[in-house]
Design a protein that fits this description.
The complex is a heterodimer. Helix content of chain A is 63%, strand content 11%. Chain A is mostly helical. A two-stranded antiparallel ribbon of chain A has the order 2-5. Chain A has a two-stranded antiparallel ribbon with strand order 3-4. Chain A is elongated, with a radius of gyration of 26 Å. Chain B is mainly α. Chain B is built from 19 helices and three strands. A two-stranded antiparallel ribbon of chain B has the order 2-3. Chain B is globular, with a radius of gyration of 23 Å. The chains are: A mainly alpha, B mainly alpha. At the A-B interface, strand 1, helix 1, helix 6 and strand 2 of A face strand 1, helix 9, helix 10 and helix 11 of B.
Chain lengths: 262, 553
């Protein structure tokens, strides 16, 4: 029995362009999500220009600038991490990913102190202190806390996502393929389990397949070795990177619109 | 992950396999209920959506029945005014967010779409399952909102500020439920758009896709682009209620009109999210039952895209009396008129398809014809209220209620009923009982018009919508309308009982192409289809409704 007529061929459902298409659609929904809030911002800023100007002076531009630098750095290291995987350099990729996660956490910590100070001064939505402010300033802070808050949640999600990616890259991604009895497996009956290379040479031969076999599991490991590294193997990392960049870009818009309009 | 036999002998693969089991009998990792709720098979997910949706439809219908009963006479009839408010809010929220928005796209779209394009499943099967779970979660949260907090929501389904940020009822949870449902809808849309781009069978260019696929494609884009707006709007309502940020609160300088804008920026396209797959399904059904290739294929396909595009920029016609500038009102009124053009293109093409066709008056066709009739009344009344002067007169009256029930229920509902009958043999391998299905159609169609027709007259005479009580002069038409609701509900219940009974006891119909006229790919696979639909991915060499191979466009 030759290897071709009676063997199982895995239909590898890995459409990387499809996944990328999906993630871009998702990023678009993020843009629209924040777009709704930017719409509110633009209406209220044109309605209360001077109140927005005064309220923006209350924000700590230094901390805002540091946070912007932190996020920009994280985007750089994210891109470097992906570039490192393209070159099969897993160690560098992991280091860069770790720096990215660290930057994200730093951003959140700075935000925590920044907001803590604001709360300390009685500036938070619904506070009695804020209620005495002019209407435009109430709206400014309402929008600021909401938009920066929703952005902060996205950063938090990013931290979780990138940590998962770190574990996946560190743990050498492996795939489990299952051949389940029923559809197709019966056609392999009478054959043998075997590993065959591209030239048809049998590298390893195992047990015969008969009707008692209900399922065959194959566990494979993709090692990011330079010589046989496929870019597609780190598609998930690239998609996570795209998400991280959109989080960064949103901040690029938030920062000047809230901190620099004085 | 799947395994396919590789054969050097090509002929052998094409031969039908007698041992091939359908997807119901395929033994996967799980069994019983778990084989459904953990299944990533698009067919199972579609049927699960259908089950949930129809259950909620029955709940919404019961609430509608009670509202109509209350309105049979002026003054208190069966419930008090606050309960009536709760009824119409729930009726709206359940019907809109749990029935018509997932609608044909999530239920039949899931079941039929991958088969129509010659794919084994959708692009992201696990995300597909996730979206069903999110739908279930949102539904459970919505139901929870009724029994917890300060009482069931009473704002109407629109959650208009500032009432929604003031009322003591449980709006926060209800808004969160809708947020979760919106996320589910986004994932469905994202999945379908990607699937259509990436998974069409070889040879199937965009202009060889069935029209239902075109419609779901346009819907998918709308879901992806529009739904985040309602997501953030409802988040803002929740934040407003919890922390008082003030963006929609006039006391703090906020503007409630902006809430209306944001709400309708999503909710008007949402109307097209609901209706577009319905229009697409009608195109397919009419072609099959008129035994005729569809007339004006590319015009119908492009009209779906045009409806999606124009439908996204007409939202402010819901706000003609909210204090917009006259210029804005003019522009939105004009744009609203433009949406009528692609809708009319579809109707003309359906009628042209019927012309000289061999029309088979099967139940799906009866529903489809009723759909055209009802959709036209709904569409024409939509034109009327798109006119500024008329809208100012009938705004917030029963005229509007009649209009959107003709479009949403008459449109989506009748198309869904048509589709259920049309694809019933494909889904279950059995045929529904013929006679009851036709009786049900007759009752539903007559009941529908008796129920909603009088509302046009009531609205024109000035009966405001959402009112608990009314002047005695309106009673005649209210009574007619309530009687209509009884007829229609009798019809719908007959239909549902008939279909459910037929799943187990209908005449066995294993024929891949039971109608004889089906030329799209789903009619080439066994009924019900096997787990991965196709033994071998088909190569497409003809248009979706053609018999002859053709050059690819």
């Amino acid at each position: 029995m030759s290897a071709t007529t009676n063997s199982l061929v895995l239909a590898h459902h890995k459409d990387y362009r499809g996944s990328k298409f999906g993630i871009w659609l998702f990023l678009m929904t993020e843009v629209v999500l924040f777009g709704g809030m930017f719409l509110l911002y633009s209406v209220y800023r044109s309605k209360y220009p001077s109140d927005f100007h005064h309220a923006a002076e209350e924000l700590n531009t230094l901390l805002g600038t540091i946070n912007t630098l932190v996020l920009l750095t994280s985007s750089l290291t994210m891109a470097l991490s992906i570039a490192a995987t393209h070159h099969g350099n897993r160690k560098l990729a992991l280091w860069m990913l770790a720096v990215t996660i660290l930057c994200a956490c730093t951003f959140l910590v700075i935000k925590y102190f920044e907001w803590g100070a604001k709360f300390h001064h009685g500036i938070y939505p619904g506070s009695a202190h804020l209620a005495a402010f002019p209407k435009g300033e109430i709206l400014f802070f309402g929008l600021y806390f909401t938009m920066a808050g929703v952005h902060g949640i996205h950063v938090l999600v990013g931290v979780v996502l990138l940590t998962v990616m770190f574990i996946r890259v560190a743990g050498q991604p492996n795939a489990k393929l299952s051949f389940v009895a029923g559809h197709g497996l019966q056609h392999a009956e009478g054959g043998n389990l075997a590993v065959v290379d591209a030239q048809g040479k049998v590298l390893w031969k195992g047990d015969p397949i008969d009707s008692t076999i209900q399922r065959i599991d194959v566990r494979t490991r993709f090692w990011p070795v330079k010589s046989r590294f496929k870019v597609e193997d780190f598609n998930q990392l690239e998609n996570s990177g795209l998400y991280w960049h959109i989080v960064d870009i949103i901040w690029i818009f938030l920062f000047p619109l809230f901190y620099l309009i004085t | 992950m799947a395994v396919y036999p590789r054969h050097d002998d090509h002929e052998h693969v094409s031969a039908p396999d007698a041992n091939e089991v359908d997807f119901y009998h395929y033994q996967g990792r799980w069994s019983g209920l778990a084989s459904w709720i953990f299944s990533t098979d698009h067919k199972r997910i579609g049927l699960m959506y259908l089950t949930l949706m129809l259950s909620f439809f029955l709940v919404g219908m019961s609430l509608g029945f009670l509202m109509r009963l209350e309105l049979i006479a002026p003054g208190r009839t069966i419930v008090d005014a606050q309960t009536y408010n709760v009824f119409f809010t729930l009726h709206g929220v359940i019907m809109i967010f749990l029935f018509v928005i997932p609608g044909l796209s999530a239920s039949l779209g899931n079941f039929i779409l991958p088969i129509m394009i010659g794919a084994k499943d959708v692009q992201f099967p696990r995300i597909n399952l996730l979206s069903w779970w999110l739908f279930l979660t949102g539904a459970v949260l919505a139901v929870t909102a009724l029994f917890t907090g300060g009482g069931p929501p009473d704002t109407g389904w629109t959650f208009y500020a500032p009432y929604s940020i003031r009322t003591g009822t449980n709006i926060t949870l209800a808004a969160f439920a809708v947020f979760v449902l919106g996320f589910s809808s986004i994932l469905t849309g994202l999945n379908f758009v990607t699937t259509i781009h990436r998974m069409r069978a070889p040879g199937m260019g965009f202009f060889r896709m069935p029209l239902f696929v075109w419609a779901v494609y346009a819907t998918g884009w709308l879901q992806v682009v529009a739904t985040p707006v309602i997501g953030i709007t409802l988040v803002l309502i929740m934040v407003e209620r919890s922390f008082g940020i003030g963006v929609f609160d006039p006391v703090k300088g906020g503007d409630p009109i902006l809430y209306q804008h944001l709400f309708w920026i999503y909710s008007h396209p949402a109307v097209y999210i609901m209706i577009l797959p319905a229009l697409g399904a009608i195109s397919d059904i009419i072609s099959v039952h008129a035994r005729r290739t569809i007339f004006g294929y590319s015009f119908i396909a492009m009209s779906s895209i045009a409806i999606a595009l124009f439908g996204s920029i007409v939202w402010a016609h819901h706000m003609f009396v909210s204090g917009n500038s006259l210029v804005a009102n003019f522009v939105f009124s004009l744009l609203t008129m433009i949406v009528a053009i692609p809708s009319a293109v579809k109707v003309f093409n359906w009628v042209a398809t019927l012309y000289k066709g061999s029309i088979q008056l099967e139940t799906p066709m009866l529903y489809a014809l009723a759909f055209i009739f009802i959709f036209m009344i709904g569409g024409f009344s939509g034109m009327m209220i798109g006119v500024l002067a008329v809208d100012v007169h009938v705004h917030d009256t029963y005229f509007i209620v009649a209009h959107f029930h003709y479009i949403l229920f008459g449109g989506l509902g009748f198309s869904l009923f048509a589709s259920l009958h049309h694809w019933f043999p494909k889904m279950f391998g059995r045929m529904y009982h013929q006679v009851p299905s036709k009786i049900a159609w007759f009752l539903t169609f007559i009941g529908f018009n008796v129920l909603y027709g009088p509302m046009f007259i009531l609205g024109w005479e000035g009966m405001p919508r959402r009112y608990y009580d009314y002047l005695p002069q309106f009673q005649l038409w209210h009574v007619v309308s309530t009687v209509g609701s009884w007829i229609m509900i009798a019809g719908i219940l007959t239909m549902i009982i008939n279909l459910v009974h037929s799943i187990k006891h209908g005449k066995v119909c294993k024929e891949p192409n039971p109608w004889g006229g089906g030329r799209t790919l789903e009619w080439t696979v066994p009924s019900p289809p096997p787990l991965e639909n196709f033994r071998e991915i088909p190569v497409v060499n003809r248009g979706p409704y053609d018999l002859e191979p053709s050059e690819s466009k």
